[in-house]
Write a structure and sequence with these properties.
Length: 265
């Protein structure tokens, strides 16, 4: 497979940028914004019902990111294709970067890929998306400002074994918790059940965007995981976006958000 055959003339670009001319120092990103699959890959052997469920994308996350971008007047970069094609929040060594099985569901179109087929997905989708994030952060820094990087995700209300996840939202970080701690405090002040590095913790095989673009650069940053039953309707998306926009604005006023800090594990 050649690069020209992965994204053809009928495929949208590998990422979407909102408010590219914004002068806000907030940058919103959404790694799992889409359940789209390039035409050249067919359906990867996955049904539409499966593809549009959580294995294909983070349900509601893109809608929240879009509303946050509008409310904050901030730039946002949204990945354009399903994590079943390639997960834009996984490093190269992650075994589920291009999953042959996802949540016990086989993905036949990902089985037995050679290096060339993998390389095309990396170059056309993963690298393009992350180059766009890096360039957007560079533009903010070129203005003499410190970017605040916010990554938007969602999670399922319960595990595959049926165990409930009680948090309405989780705030996650790797080593730098400058922005996570005040955000957790503010959300708990709203009466919410807030996970601290829950339902997911960071790991060397599970996260790429925030460690590379945020913490490696010393930028204030955090990852938000919203339980997806909270954001399945436009009304609930609006409620969450308005709430989060207010808290993000408060973070911008904190001295901790206005400098670089490289924290090592």
């Amino acid at each position: 497979m050649t690069a020209a055959l992965l994204l053809g003339p009928h495929d949208p670009p590998p990422f979407e940028t909102l408010n590219p001319e914004s002068t806000s120092r907030v940058l919103l990103v959404c790694d799992h914004a889409s359940c789209r699959i390039p035409f050249a890959l067919g359906d990867l052997g996955v049904s539409e019902a499966e593809r549009t469920d959580h294995i294909g994308w983070d349900i509601g996350a893109a809608a929240v990111a879009r509303r946050l971008a509008a409310l904050l007047g901030a730039p946002a970069i949204l990945a354009g294709y399903s994590r079943l094609v390639i997960d834009c929040n996984r490093p190269a060594a992650a075994p589920d970067r291009i999953p042959a099985v996802s949540d016990s569901i086989p993905v036949p179109g990902n089985e037995g890929l050679d290096q060339s087929a993998v390389g095309v997905r990396v170059d056309d989708l993963f690298t393009s998306y992350h180059d766009a994030i890096g360039a957007a952060l560079d533009r903010i820094e070129a203005r003499g400002e410190i970017p605040l990087l916010i990554s938007v995700h969602s999670f399922t209300p319960r595990l595959a074994n049926g165990a409930d996840r009680p948090w309405e939202i989780g705030i996650c970080w790797d080593n730098d918790r400058r922005m996570a701690d005040p955000m957790i405090e503010r959300l708990r002040g709203d009466g919410l059940r807030v996970g601290a590095n829950e339902p997911y913790d960071f790991g060397v095989l599970t996260d790429y965007t925030l460690p590379v673009h945020g913490e490696d650069r010393g930028l204030p940053s955090l990852l938000m995981e919203i339980r997806n039953d909270e954001i399945r309707t436009p009304e609930r998306v609006e409620t969450w976006a308005v709430r989060l926009a207010g808290h993000i604005c408060a973070l911008l006023d904190l001295p901790e958000s206005q400098g670089l800090e490289r924290v090592k594990s």
